[in-house]
Amino acid sequence: MGLRRALVIGAMTLTAAAPAEEAPSVPATAQEFADLRDVAEAYVRGRLVDPESAQFSWPSNFMHGASWKPWIGRSVYGSMTCGIVNSRNRMGGYVGRTYFAIVIGDGGINWFEMDDTQHFRVQKKCETLALPPAPVEVPKTAEAPVSVADEIRKLGELRDQGLVTQEEFDQQKRKLLGL
After folding, report:
1. Cβ atoms of 64 and 49 closer than 8 Å
2. Strand, helix or coil at 128?
3. Mean pLDDT of the region 16-27
4. Residues 109, 110, 113, 114: what is their CA dihedral angle, to the nearest 10 degrees?
5. d(CA 1, CA 21)
6. pLDDT tier at 22 (50, 70, 90 boundaries)?
7. String of DSSP letters for 60-123
8. Residue 27 carries which DSSP code?
9. pLDDT digits (tens, 9 = 90+) for 44-57
10. What residues does 81 pair with on adjacent strands?
11. How far is CA 170 from CA 156, 158, 161, 175, in A?
12. Residue 122 CB-density burial (10 A; 0-12 exposed, 13-18 middle, 19+ buried)
């Protein structure tokens, strides 16, 4: 038996091994999802040509206790999900939606794999996995910025209504104007 064949058989034997008792996979809560998403985004940004241009979408939730089976090697266990990133290349153009798979464990990133422009293995595998959808995040309502002029106008209305004296009005106006 040749060395190459022995290595292939050895690799097949390693990939067949699985943990004796596998815990059931559990989806992440909304807070856990947000925390894991932040870790994953930071990790993916570190591998991009233009990290500031990264646009992420998260179609799937993280599954605790899930496994990702790499093309070669043993299954990797942890909190696993698939995501999509689009970012700029060296020429400044966006490359398009690129699928990635990430497994996060207690010690950090256990596995990361991203499709390249010619192979879509991760995308195909992510589409066949039965991952639950990502939790819906309630967008934070951003308050409209209040301008100094608006504040002075409100103070003027309070003064006109007799709720603020002229001295208080002048004092607050100076404070708002930074005088």
Report:
1. no
2. helix
3. 60
4. -10
5. 34
6. low
7. B--EEEEEE--SSS--EEEEEEEEEEE-B-TTSSB---EEEEEEEETTEEEEEEE--SS--HHH
8. E
9. 999 999 999 999 99
10. 102
11. 10, 12, 15, 9
12. buried
Token readout for 151 is 């504040």
Structure tokens at 26: 């559990």
pLDDT digit string (tens) for 126-161? 888 888 999 886 555 556 667 888 888 888 888 888
Structure tokens at 179: 């005088």
- What confidence category does residue 17 fall into, taking pLDDT thresholds of 50, 70 and 90? very low
Q: How wide is the angle at C-alpha 129 spanned by C-alphas 126 and 133, nearest 5°?
A: 85
pTM value > 0.90 = no
Which tokens hold the place of 134? 């990502």
Q: Are 124 and 82 in contact (CB under 8 A)?
A: no
